[in-house]
């Protein structure tokens, strides 16, 4: 069972405000919610879920389904720690599907059965394609991290589909969103390999993988292992981030603890027991990587610079550590996207199969 933990909502607003308004929500509405929220967990006026859900319900009543999906996305943020958060995710999905006819890209919700160990994970995924897409281009696998999931990144993923002409197959990493937990590096790798097979059948046989934040851990892994044809890593933790004794900022310990499947607030040593399984040093020591693009902000409080710089000098790898910006270089996202699109174009990754 998930658990709640002590977290100050104002800290979340400080860290995520730019992300909230850049997603498309009106500034005045975000400011109104920020002024109203006084506590994180109680489901009552002044509570995080209550105030964000009230905003979302207003949008839904006015049939502004895209805005409603965004607001319900913040209502369930940062993790599904209680029934109210689960309800918010369900309502986000309802509004997202209602908004889909108005998307610039074509949308399809698919259910994929992913073999995992001796069992099967049933995983909902979202396929975004340029309208009229005939499957003659590569497909890009795409995911966010432990607290920002496939529907939350819709705008970015849709932009990638429209700009590159590729299909984008969006999914949630293990322990988050609609993907059963706990978060596990091996299970995540199994999911990526299964989705890569699905994507090869959908497109022209070529598969790219874009991961943001913890999703970047899995795109780094797939790129280093050669499980895809190219990988883009934005703010991904790969090695130093998992060093014993490192702390978390802005409530991230509770977010990660929930994703890892704890039913109580874990002590630092309990969290640290999981980290050796996420360290990608064995793959970093090999020379099996596909073309990779690795980007992050130099001021990231979650992922040390070394987890970006460790890729510097690798074969077929381009590295950008952007100054004056933090985790995933969110405040410089237009620059990140420009770098990414130029890299894709330069390598002709979106059009032909090598």
Share of residues in strands = 15-25%
**Cα distance spanning the termini:** 46 Å
Largest pleated sheet: 8 strands, mixed
- SSE arrangement, N to C: HHHHHEEEHEHEHEHHHEHEH
Helix count, DSSP H or I runs of 4 or more residues: 13
Q: Structural class per helix/strand content?
A: alpha/beta
What is the assigned CATH homologous superfamily of the largest domain? Alpha/Beta hydrolase fold, catalytic domain
Query: How many domains would you count in the coordinates?
Result: 2
How many strand elements?
8
Task: Estimate the helix proportion, in percent.
Answer: 40-55%
**Major β-sheet strand ordering:** 1-2-4-3-5-6-7-8
Task: Report low-confidence residues grouped into runs of 5 or more.
Answer: none
CATH class of the largest domain: Alpha Beta
> Cα-atom Rg, whole angstroms?
19 Å
User: What is the 3D form?
Assistant: globular
CATH topology of the largest domain: Rossmann fold
CATH architectural designation of the largest domain: 3-Layer(aba) Sandwich
What average pLDDT do the residues reach? 95
